[in-house]
Amino acid sequence: MHTTIMGAALLLAIATPNGVQAQTPATQPVKGAEAVIVSYADLDLRQPMGTRMLDHRLKTAARRTCDTASLPMDHYLVRHWCIRDAVADGWAQVAARRADQYAGRPTVTLAALRTRR
């Protein structure tokens, strides 16, 4: 049986001026998908340490969702691509939410990296 790992998508929780409020996910759950919540509400992304910590959290979450330990060794590249795409997608979502923040719109403080196998 051939297993394919797709790139990561993000589920979001929105922070409003009244606190954190869960919203309906932008994507629907997919059978066989795993999700890992990545919070950066406690990080100051204007500081280098904050961005390093978020990068570490995104990579850790991506490794968890892209785990292929039970697959043959030739799937190593698939796992590598999955992690790379998940982290890049996470950063793209953070950048989009920071733009919303600067524009005075609600900001994201939680995201879930999801992969589909």
UniProtKB/TrEMBL annotation:
InterPro entries: UrcA_uranyl
Keyword Signal: yes
Domain of life: Bacteria
UniProt keyword annotations, A-Z: Signal
Signal peptide: 1-22
Record keyword Signal present: yes
Name recorded for this polypeptide: UrcA family protein
NCBIfam families according to UniProt: UrcA_uranyl
